[in-house]
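residues and backbone:
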Amino acid sequence: MDYTNFDTFKSPAGGVELSDTLSSWRKKTNGIVMKVDSLDSTAGTLDGTVSALTTTVATSNVNNNSILLSKVQLLGSNKLLGNVGSGDGNVAAVEIDVTASGLQDSDDTIPTSKAVKDHVVINQRYISGRININGSAASLHGISVSRTEVGVYNIIVADSHQLPSGESYSVVAQIGVDVDAYGPLSNVINDAYHIHVFKIADIGGDPAYRVEIFELESITAHGGGNDHNDIVSASFIRRDAQFSVLGLPATDQ
């Protein structure tokens, strides 16, 4: 069977024109052109049989920004298109992690903001203060202080420095000045002081810690005709003293 090229084909209607519609093409070519689009064509042959014609579209023939997202194949849930390999490769579906459950140290999964733990700004993740002997805070960072009794202080964390649920500060305190002997008959054994710091129940809904300061007090008495004194009693007593306090996150992940 003979075939005629379109550039030389003549039909009773006068030939195929570029301005013709698809319907006109089909009519003038007696059904040879069945379907024409940019990606796939179905054409009829002169003997009436139908065959599939696959057309390759050159990149230069595709206008920029002309392919709609709706024309891209559907993706599975929680996937994005990309290439996580070490070199050039075909575009592939990459897993999106939205829960951080079992998130691994790998480039094969992309975490969302929901899967990434939020962290407080670094300059808010500590508390500190210098406390006067009367229980007032001379300087502080993220705390308020209240003196409940002699040698007992409450350190209360301010709103802006509170840690996420499940985290807490590890708080330490240190006496900043020497403390005089308790009385005229008392002396200090090797400047023996003890500072006790521990977490207590929230105060007014705010996390709180307690600082207790003790001094080892000794009572001396004259030893008789010799020149030395003897210790007749010793005890721990609470003492007010100037101290500094510092807290860092104990369970920061």
